[in-house]
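Exam revision sheet. Question 4 asks you to relate a sequence to its structure. Input first:
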Amino acid sequence: LLPFGTAAWKTNLLACLLGGLTNVLLYINVKRFSGSDAAGLLTAGWCGFSRIFWMWSIQGEVFSFSNFFAALIMYAAWRFGNAEGRPGKFYEAKLGALICGLALTNQHTSVLFIFPTSLWVLFTLWRYELSDMKFLLPVGLRGLLGLTPYLQLPISSFFFNARVTWGDHRLLSDFKKHLLREDYGTFQLMIGDKKSTFKENFTIYLNDTTKELSILMFFLLIVAVVMVCWKGSKKQRELFAVHVSMFATYHLVFCSLANAVKSKGIQLGILERFWLQPNVALGVMAGSALGMLFMKARERKDAFKYAFLVLAIVLVNAQVKRNYEGCNENDNYFFHHVSRNILAHVPEKSVILTSGDFSANILRYYTVGEEYRTDVRVMDLHLMKTSWFNRTLSSNFDDVILPGMYRPGKYQKSPYYNLKDFLDANMPNIPSIFMCLSVPENDKSIVGHYEAWPYGICRKFVKINTPSTPDRFEFLKNIPKWDLDTTPIPDADRYESRSWEYALLDTVMRTYSNPAVCLWNYAATFNATESYEVRMDLHLKAFEMMMENRKYIHDRIESGLLPFNVQKVLTLFEKSVGQQALILYEMETEPEKKNAYEKDVIKHWAIYKKWVAMTEDEPDEMTDMISHVVATKTVAKIKINL
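Answer key, C-alpha cells:
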C-alpha cells in the first residue's frame, strides 16, 4: 500500500507495527483481568522489550503476526467471557471465530490456542442454549470467512505465472499439502525422523525463557493459580483456566512433535521463535498475578498506585537498556551485502543452485523482488525435488534443462535425475553453474566427474579430468575477493550463535581459507614419495595463498573475533602449515633456508598452541610435539616420517 520503500523495508515495517500492537494487547489483557494499569504496563514492556520478542518483532517473518494473533485470541476470549446475555455471547462468538480463522492463515501453531478456547466457547454456548445449528452455523461461517486469504493461492496459480511459489495450487492435492505444511512436516520444525523428546524440548524452553524473561515469570504463574482459585471471581477462574489450557496444550503438543533441534547454535534460534506464542500466554498470566498483588496492596494504601507505576517504568527502562544494543539493527545490512556481493561477481546468465530457504531466499529476493541481476537463475534443489516444480516454475528457467524430478543420490533412473545428470545436461550450454551458501544434500553423484571449487562465497562446479579443466592454482588465485572497504563484515561477537547473521558470517569468513584448503587437500591426493615435488609445490602455493588471504582478516585473527567454526579451520591450518614447514626443514640442506623453515615451524605452531584452547581441540601426539617446539624454540630433536 505504501508507494515508497523496498519490499523488505515495508515487510519489516508491518512486522514492527504488529509487534507494537501485540504489546498493546498484552497491556489490555492484563489490565482487563486484574484491573492494574501498572501491571499491564510492566507486562507489555518487560515482554515486548525482551530480546526474543524484540528481535522477532523487527524482522519480516510470520512470528510477529503469530504473537499478535495469540494476544488477540486471548483478548477475544476475555470479551466472550465478560459478554452479558445470549445476544452478547453470540456476537462475541462470531467475532472470535473470525479472528481464529485469520490466525490459522498465518501460523499453524495458532490451533493450539484455538482448540482449548473453542471447547470452552462451545460449552458456554450450550449453557446459554445457543448450541442449535441456527446459532452454530453463523459462528462456523465466520471462521471460514477468516480462512479466505487461502483463496489467494489457487487464484494466483490460475491467473498469474508466479516466479516464486510453493506448490501447484490448481490441484486440490497440492493445495492440501500446502495447507497442512506436509513438505516441512505438519506440526514439526522439519520433515524427517524425530530426534528429540518432550523432556528435552521443554527443558530447553524452561532454560531459554528463564534467561530471556526471568524465573520470576514462572513464580508469578504459580501465584496466579493460587490467587485466582482462592480469591478470583467465577469469570476470572473460567478465563484463567482457558489461559492455562492454551499454555499447556501448546507445550504438550509442540514439545512432543518438534524434531531435529539442539540446545545451541542456529537450531536453537529456529526453535526459540516458537516459544513466543506460549510466552504471550505466560506473560498475561504472570502479569495478571502481579496486577492482583498490586490491587491487594492498593486496598491498604492508595498511594501504592503511583509507586507501582514508577516501579513499572523503571523496570521497563532497565529491560530496554539491557537488550537495546543486541536488538539494534539499524546498521544491519549484512544479508544485503552478501547477496549483492554474490550476484555482482557471478558471470552473465549464471545458474546458482541453493538448498533450503536460508540460501535461496536472500538471493531470490534481489533477483525477483528488486530485479537486480535478473539474468541470474536461482534454483533451489529442495524445491526441485517436488512434483510441482517443473509444472509451475520451469518456465522461469527456459534455457535450463530439467531431466525429470531431482533426487539426490549416486544412480537415478528416469523420471529422476541427480546432480551429475543436471550438470551433464546443462554444463555444455551454461558453463557457469554455482552452489551458494549451502551444499548438495546427500548427493555424491558428482564424485569423480565434477568438483565444487571455491569461488568467493560460492563454489563453482568444474568438470575434472578433461582437456578443458582449468589450472586449479590459477583459478583459485584469481577468484573474487570480498571487498572489506565497501562491504564491511560485522565482528563475530555482534550476533549470537543462534542467529542467521552468525551462520552467514561463518560462511563468509570461510571464504578466506577455502581456496588454500582446497589446494592443500588436492596436494594431499598425490603420493608423498612418487610425486613429492608436485605435492610440495602445491603445498607451498597453498601456504602462500593462505598468507595472502590472511591479511584481509589479520585484525580479526589477532583479536579472536571470528566465528568458532572459522577459528577452528584457521587453527588447524596453522598446524598443517607448521607440519609442512617441518617437512621442508627436514629436507633442506642449505643452512640459511633451514633456519628460515625452523622459524616458520615455531611461528605457526605457536599460533596453533595459542588458539587450540579456544577450539577445545583434543590433545594428541602432535600437540605434545608442538608444545615442546614452542617451549624450547627449536625443532632440532623432532623427527618425523616423510
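Marking note for examiners. The two ends are 70 Å apart (CA to CA).
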